[in-house]
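Moderator note: this is an archived Q&A kept for reference. The question asked for a predicted structure of one protein chain; the sequence and the answer are reproduced below.
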Amino acid sequence: MMLGMSSPRSTGLGVATGTALYVGAVLGPGVLILPALAAQAAGPASVLAWAGLLALSVAIAVTFAALGVRHPVAGGAAAYVQAAFGRLPAAATGWWFYAGVVIGAPTVSLVGGFYVSHLVGGGKPIAVVAAAAMLVAALAANAGGLRLSATVQLGLAALLAALLLVAIVAALPAARASQWTPFAPHGWLAVGTAANLLMLSFVGWEAVAHLAG
């Protein structure tokens, strides 16, 4: 697999669209459901999982920021691995990324399709149709170029932020101090279970590394 080690021409994405790409890669729509699952697993103590993963995520983000400054190349994480360990580990990294996209993109689309079918009804057929439509839309946006896909992602990130804001505002009247007790109803080990679920909202920093240039 050829690794893009040369610096690409600047696309001038800007802070807003660059941030939107990272929001999509790191958070994604899973943030709409994962907090509830974590709370079911560990109760109020799930906030400890959030705090711990946030601290780890900062370290990972700083690491990739430093690597992006030192190696602003199109190869991304695979190029970083090549610089440190050589071509064979870099090729393995590149193929893992490729497999992740081929397998992951349809899977994530299907998850979104079941969101749609749960909302409008229709069961699995509607979920599959909606998933196919999402996948085609994503491929079309990417075919339109980086600026188009980044602009679409900016709109999706804004929609995600709006949904979160609505959820928070709607939940505020029901907030009670008594709901924080017992703090760890399922034991302290359940915090680890919650962290395993929430981990999906803190990975993805490497997915945008190839745009560092």
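Archived answer notes: The helical segments are 14-26, 34-42, 46-70, 76-85, 87-120, 123-143, 146-171, 190-198.
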